[in-house]
Write a structure and sequence with these properties.
The complex is a heterodimer. Chain A has 18 helices and eleven strands. Chain A is of the alpha+beta class. Chain B is built from 15 helices and 20 strands. The chains are: A alpha+beta, B alpha/beta.
């Protein structure tokens, strides 16, 4: 058992909940079936008991009937006895009827006693048990009937027994009296005697006491007559009086006996009145009990079948209902929970269990939901934070990208004004801002003047020449003065109310200083329609962008300055080049060629109109006449200076000049300019190289000696030769006056070089 | 922070449920639950419940409840009361809880004589008044007064007695009305161990005559009315001493009462020196009285001791004038015909006759019973006082039952039959409405004086006779 229990327990634990419920409800069903069987057995027992009651009731009924029949027979015999003894004789009647009646009564008493015992038996129904008192009465009445009957027989015997009975004695005594009186021959006495006998006979026939009383009264008169009668002898008188005394005594005894016998008859009647209803009731009750018991058996059988079917059906229904209930309230919820846990385990953290129940499963489901929700919240929070961080990073990346884009854009732009416009537009666009403006500090450093602004507001403020005091209360003023970024938000404890009517939607603003090489020369205002749009990271990015812008602006400024210087240099270079080309063209006036079907020839110095127009306009001139040739003149540029014109034409039938042809010509002409410049420079370089060689040779020769005069001599000679001039003088001066001659020589030289 | 106490774990809750369990346990397992113990169990439950509902129990309260629980548990271990064992020589009547105490009134329900029926009804009311005075309950049991009809005959009495003794739950019998019925019923009653207290049986033989047990005396028979021998004694003394007659004829109807009167009269009168010249009798139901009146005239008595009841007495008096010489005879009757109904019928017939009647009962107790009677039944006081004797008979029986009954805890009554007889025989100086009652060994309990009154005014009825008392006889004086 000890080994079995853990095994069973383990197996039980391994079973699924559905199997467990099936097992439990199987047991419940078995229990109900057991109950049904018990009911059936109970009903069977009830049926058996009822059958026993039927048997008992039937037996009691039979017993009552037998008892009653015996009693009735005894009564008939008793009646016959009293009716027939006067005619049949007391002895014969007694033997024929009285003894039989007594036997019957004895049987009745025995049966009554048996009936009494039966009624206290266990098999008797409660209805019959109630008749215990009646049966007691029945029994005692039967016994009394027998006793009374015997007494009445005795009384009758005393009254009517032949020879010894009172009536016989009375007759005998009357006869003696009659004989005595008759012997006297006294008619009056005989008349009285006859009267006496007449009353006596009347009494014997009617048994009415007054008749006997009348007889006794006559006897009183007879006594007086006898006493006074002279016809009687003393002996006869004594004899007659003796008879008369006996007569009176017997008469009184007969009357008393008759009264007593009448009392017995009354007694019989009363007993019959008492007993007859009892037997009738007992028989009726026994019959009723039998009928009821049979009905109970039939009912019990029917009930057993109904109960059996009902119990089984009810049990099945109940079990089904219970299973359904359990399934609805437990199993299904458990399955839900299991499925939810499975889904949860599979990674679906949004899973929740909907169990509307207050039981443990409901609590478990709530706990599961709470736990899942908490975990989901936790994971969601983490994801949100990751997303936020990702968004931040993306935003920052976007900002950085925008910043880089702005940086790239502004770096490529060297025009400051264009740069400023681009900065504000790009910043506003790329950063998704509501408004961006750029201020530059004036030359005096007192005002920050708006140089660019986005949107209508920007344009309006530019038109109004919007400017802010450096060091004033404005964010731009503060930003420029302090050289650090300023942020204003309309949220939080330090919320700022923005009241620029031109920028009504501004909810966040930042002022970013434009610094370059440690100098703040302006600021950018960025405004967003989003609250709290700027944090440290954004500001950092924007500031980086602003720094780039500042550098770019500074670069643009430097570039402009450089451009100016370059332009100046270029202009100077172009001038030199133009002068060199003018010098060259002066030296070679025929420098120009014409190409046609005949070949290349020296071009005539004929300037057609389109050529003059291209030379004047410094641009390509195309004459697209509808008829005739279509001339094209392309200026030839060298370092921006037009040094010549390429002129050509297309016959009218060849069509117009297209862009490709024009572009190609432009390119070719441009390359021509470069080539010409190269050729010129080469020539110039050759010339310079020759000069440098000369200088070097002269210098070398001048340095070949350490004698000053020799040096001077060599120098003056070589330099004159190098310069191919007819004469040259070198004179040295004292130290005090050295400055002036030197200067005179430099000025001369500068004048010579500048032309 | 409040500590959450789990349900069913507080002391009060445990204590409460323990108390309830004790209550049900007692009812289930104990054969006869002791009321006191049940009350204690409820008390525990109530105390615990009160403690649970109101506030935490004090330490003292916990000790008290614990002590009570221990006491109950200990009491539960005690043996239950042993079942009642009847040691009465005649057996016992056991009356289960809810069952009534069954008493039987032997009376006359069906009879040709309306006067007799009315007379019986008066006595029934006397019994009912006594029972009603106790709230129709006796020792917590209802009193069920059944009626059995004797028909005022011996055989009727016997058969009624058979019906009574057939029911073993009958405790006692009140009645019967007629002595003849009592003579036949009392042996049956006595053999069955019952007691019978009559309020109207006057036949001397039922108890004793001159200190000797009567022929019909049976143990268990009692009466609250006078012994008829006393009435005869009063009549004999009146006849012999007051009227100075020496020759008396007697007339009865052969029944126990009337023959009892005549027998006693004869015994006393002859003892006084008188002579009984005739002892005549009629049969109950006889209507022709002339023969017997003739025999009486023939006997030439100076006085006729008229011991007849209404049914026979009225025609006898009415036919008196039809028998020469009969009217000349002084008639001394008994109380059997003392009623206004009889006197109304008689009118002038029987005028001048004497009646021996018990002295009218009086006193505050009587007044109270009479008042109750008149209030309850909305009728005037009957002319005869048997309803008061009936009232006393019922009280005597019920008091005796209360004295001897053994009452079990559940209310079951055990009444020893011999004990009940003994208690009734031991009645002494019992203050009844009819006077002080002391029962002797033969069952005579009353001590009544008699008045001899003359019927002189038919219009005045019994009231006139009561005011016309010519002789008073008190026993022992």
């Amino acid at each position: 058992m000890k080994l079995f229990k853990p095994k069973l327990a383990r197996r039980w634990r391994r079973l699924g909940i559905n199997t467990k419920f099936r097992a439990i409800f199987g047991l419940v069903l078995a229990l109900i079936l057991l109950m049904a069987i018990t009911n059936y057995v109970s009903l069977a027992l009830l049926r058996r008991r009822t059958e026993r009651e039927i048997i008992a009731s039937t037996e009691i009924q039979a017993l009552v009937l037998e008892t009653d029949r015996g009693l009735q027979e005894a009564r008939v015999l008793q009646r016959d006895f009293f009716l027939r003894y006067p005619t049949e004789g007391l002895t014969a009647a007694r033997e024929a009827y009285a003894l039989e009646a007594v036997k019957k009564l004895s049987q009745v008493v025995t049966l009554s006693a048996e009936l009494q015992q039966r009624l206290v038996g266990t098999e008797v129904s409660s209805a019959l048990e109630l008749y215990e008192v009646d049966v007691n009465l029945y029994l005692s009445a039967a016994a009394r009937f027998a006793e009374t009957f015997l007494e009445s027989v005795d009384l009758v015997t005393s009254l009517a027994a032949p020879e010894t009975g009172l009536e016989a004695q009375l007759q005998q005594n009357s006869r003696g009296l009659h004989e005595t009186l008759e012997a006297t021959g006294d008619r009056s006495l005989l008349k009285l005697y006859n009267d006496l006998r007449a009353f006596e006979r009347e009494y014997l026939s009617s048994r009415q006491r007054p008749q006997m009383q009348s007889a006794l009264n006559v006897a009183f008169q007879l006594r007086e007559a006898i006493n006074s009668a002279e016809t009687l002898t003393a002996e006869a008188q004594t004899q007659a009086l003796s008879y008369l005394d006996t007569y009176e005594t017997l008469a009184r005894e007969i009357v008393a006996l008759d009264a007593e016998i009448q009392g017995k008859f009354n007694d019989f009647d009363l007993q019959a009145q008492a007993v007859d209803p009892i037997s009738a009731r007992l028989i009726r009750t026994a019959e009723s009990e039998v009928a009821q018991a049979r009905a109970r058996i039939a009912q019990a059988n029917q009930l057993a079948a109904i109960i059996l079917i009902g119990v089984v059906a009810g049990a099945v229904l109940l079990v089904a209902l219970a299973i359904r209930l359990i399934n609805a309230s437990v199993t299904r919820n458990v399955v839900k929970l299991t499925a939810a846990v499975g889904q949860w385990q599979a990674g679906d953290l949004s899973t929740s269990v909907q169990i509307e129940s207050g039981d443990e499963l409901g609590v478990l489901a709530k706990a599961f939901n709470a736990m899942a929700s908490q975990l989901q919240d936790l994971i969601g929070s983490l994801e949100r934070r990751v997303n936020e961080r990702t968004r931040d990073l993306e935003l920052r990346s976007a900002y950085l990208e925008a910043s880089a884009e702005v940086g790239r854009a502004v770096v490529s732009i060297l025009d400051a004004d264009k740069l400023i416009d681009q900065v504000v537009d790009l910043t506003c666009t790329r950063f998704g801002l509501y408004y961006v403006g750029l201020f530059l500090v004036d030359e005096m450093g007192e005002w920050a003047e708006l140089r660019a602004g986005t949107g209508k507001a920007g344009r309006q403020m530019l038109a109004e020449e919007h400017r802010l005091k450096v060091g004033g209360r404005s964010m731009i003023g503060q930003c420029v003065a302090r050289g650090e970024a300023r942020i204003a938000l309309d949220v939080g404890e330090e919320a700022v109310h923005f009241d620029n009517p031109l920028l009504p939607e501004t909810r966040s603003e930042a002022a970013l200083p434009l610094r370059s090489r440690g100098h703040v020369f302006g600021a950018i205002t960025v405004q967003s329609a989003q609250p709290a749009a700027f944090d440290e990271d954004v500001i950092t990015v924007l500031q980086t962008m602003a720094d780039q812008v500042a550098v770019a602006l500074d670069n643009a400024r430097l570039f402009a300055e450089f451009e100016d210087a370059l332009e100046a240099a270029r202009r100077a270079s172009g001038e030199l080049s133009r002068e060199a080309w003018e010098e060259l063209l002066r030296r070679r006036r025929d420098l120009g060629f014409h190409s046609d079907e005949r070949g290349v020839i020296r071009a005539e110095q004929i300037w057609r109109p389109e050529m003059e127009q291209a030379l004047r306009k410094r641009e390509i001139v195309v004459h697209d006449a509808e008829e005739g040739n279509r001339p094209l003149a392309v200026p030839i540029r060298v370092r921006g200076e037009v040094i010549g014109v390429l002129d050509t034409y297309k016959p009218g039938q060849a069509g117009e000049w297209d862009e490709e042809e024009i572009g190609m010509l432009e390119t070719l002409v441009e390359q021509l300019g470069v080539a010409l410049e190269g050729a010129r420079l080469y020539e110039d370089t050759q010339r310079r190289a020759a000069r440098e060689r000369v200088v070097s040779e002269v210098t070398d020769r001048m340095r070949e000696t350490l004698d000053s005069a020799a040096v001077l001599k060599t120098a003056v000679e070589d330099i004159r030769q190098a310069l191919n001039v007819p004469e040259m003088t070198i004179s040295l001066v004292p130290a005090a006056a050295a400055a002036r001659p030197s200067i005179a020589v430099d000025e001369d030289k500068e004048e010579r070089e500048n032309g | 922070m409040a500590k959450v106490v789990p349900k069913f774990k507080t002391f009060q809750t445990r204590c409460f449920f323990l108390g309830r369990a004790l209550v049900f346990g007692r009812f289930i397992f104990l054969e006869r639950p002791k009321r006191l113990m049940s009350i204690q169990s409820y008390l525990v439950s109530y105390t615990c419940l009160k403690g649970k509902r109101s506030k935490p129990m004090t330490k003292q309260m916990r000790y008290l409840v614990s002590l009570m629980i221990v006491a109950i548990l200990l009491s539960a271990c005690q043996p239950t009361a042993p079942p009642f064992e009847c040691t009465d020589s005649l057996g016992c009547v056991t009356i289960a809880p809810g069952e009534p105490v069954k008493l039987v009134e032997m009376t006359v329900i069906e009879h040709p004589s309306e006067a007799l029926r009315n007379f019986c009804a008066e006595m029934t009311r006397g019994f009912e008044l006594a029972i009603a005075e106790r709230g129709t309950e006796l020792l917590g049991h209802a009193v069920d007064l059944q009626q059995e009809n004797t028909g005022c005959t011996g055989e009727g009495g016997a058969n009624a007695a058979l019906r009574v003794v057939a029911d073993p739950q009958i405790v006692g019998i009140l009645g019967p009305v007629c002595s003849g019925a009592a003579v036949e019923a009392s042996p049956i009653m006595s053999e069955a161990g019952l007691v019978m207290i009559s309020a109207n049986n006057q036949a001397p033989e039922l108890t004793a005559v001159s200190g000797e047990p009567g022929e019909a005396w049976q143990p268990g028979y009692y009466r609250t009315i006078y012994n008829g021998a006393t009435l005869s004694e009063a009549a004999a003394h009146f006849a012999f001493a007051e009227l100075g007659v020496s020759k008396v004829a007697m007339l009865d109807d052969g029944t126990a009462t009337t023959t009892g009167f005549t027998d006693a009269f004869e015994q006393i009168f002859t003892a006084l020196g008188g002579e009984i010249v005739l002892s005549a009798a009629v049969a109950p139901g006889d209507t022709n009285m002339k023969p017997v009146l003739t025999s009486i005239v023939n006997a030439e008595p100076e006085l006729l001791f008229f011991s007849l009841k209404n049914q026979e007495g009225v025609p006898a008096l009415q036919q008196q004038e039809d028998v020469p010489g009969a009217e000349e005879i002084v008639i001394l009757g008994t109380a059997t015909m003392f009623s206004d109904e009889v006197l109304d019928v008689l009118g002038t017939d029987g005028l001048g006759m004497y009646m021996t009647v018990p002295t009218a009962l009086s006193g505050p107790e009587v007044d109270q019973v009479v008042a109750d009677y008149e209030t309850t039944y909305e009728t005037a006081r009957p002319s005869r006082d048997q309803f008061i004797f009936a009232y006393d008979a019922a009280n005597l029986l019920m008091d005796a039952i209360e004295t001897v009954a053994v009452q079990a805890e559940d209310g079951t009554l055990h009444i020893g039959r011999q004990a009940l007889r003994d208690a009734l025989y031991a009645t002494a100086d019992y203050e009844g409405a009819s006077g002080s009652l002391t029962c002797d060994q033969y069952g005579d309990c009353a001590s009544i004086s008699f008045d001899i009154m003359r019927y002189a005014d038919p219009e005045a009825g019994t009231a006139g006779m009561l005011s016309n008392v010519v002789f008073t006889y008190a026993p022992g004086q």
